[in-house]
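Long-time lurker, first post.

We've been arguing in lab meeting about whether zinc ion would sit comfortably in this protein at all. Half the group thinks yes, half thinks no, and nobody has a model to point at. So I'm putting the question to the forum: if I give you the sequence and the SMILES, can you give me back a predicted structure of the complex? Inputs are below. Any interpretation is welcome too.
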Amino acid sequence: MKRALLYGPRDLRVAEGDIPTPKPNEVLIKVITSSICATDAHIYEGTFKFPYPSIQGHDFTGVIEAVGAEVRSLAVGDRVTMDPISFCLHCRYCRAGRYNICETSTYMGMEVEGCFQDYLTLPQHRVFRLPEQVDEEEAAVMEPLHVALNTMRKLGYKVGETVVVLGQGPMGLCQGQVAKMVGCRVIVVDVLPKRLKLAESYGVDFALNAAELEVNKEIATICGGDGPHCVIDTAGTEKTNRQTVRIAANGGKIAIIAGHFAVPVPFMIGKELQVFGIRGGGPENVELAIRLLQEKRIDLRSTITTHFDFKDIGEAFRQFYENKENVVKIMLRN
Ligand SMILES: [Zn+2]
Ligand SMILES: [Zn+2]
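Top reply:
Settle the argument with this. Predicted structure of the protein with zinc ion, as tokens:
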């Protein structure tokens, strides 16, 4: 089988490896298709560092090829996706249902090897069968949706409230769709016209181009001189991190998905803001994401812009950087 090993920044090599054997509680999955996330790009470039050689990738669809002796709920031939975060089921956080912050959790494709290979094994409690209505490509770009659903629960935004989403990559596009589904007024911000157009096609109320507008002023005007109830930063730049606390209404809530949280603290104190770090989704949000796709209540298909064979993963990463204007989600086909 083929595996994509990262030996250093931008040094990715496809090599042969052995197909792993599942443990008693594990399943062996043959990867059908996977997608490249902005986090993979950070690791590829060396801005996020993990021990080399590493295997990236944390969003995929596969088919079960073998099951361990203790596996009951899954069978050979099942089409599946997974929770990219490991959890132990036993620690105090798992017992409280907060699986995504399990004491021993790891994120696939980061601390442990990911899905940019032909086969991998996972414990059965992290693997979810896909209903036939769910398209295998949409299920392989679903991780941002797990995160958006987790963000919705953490922020607890409600019908009629205003939600601002900074950044309209796949993560930001999902956040906007989920907030719209709840019934919020949604303002999204990006600098790429194609992404703003895509956001508009999902029915967001305002799509602002930060390259052309004074965004903070514009948002204040939309909010009648005040600020939004919730701000979600999916861009994670120093500028957008700072922007979150500047534009939020007093008593507002902020979700940080990426970045270093370089914020002006006096605004946080003066406005009594609540800040949430968001880590993945956890199993309940993976299950909900699958159901929303099954019921066609969310559209991930239109974020898929580009396809490559898995063996051409190096070229796929080059496209990610060189064609930012047009590329949203890149699929790799095994
Ligand atoms: Zn990701
Ligand atoms: Zn645990």
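For your lab meeting: The longest strand covers residues 26-36. The CA atoms of residues 126 and 308 lie 27 Å apart. Whichever side wins, do check it experimentally.
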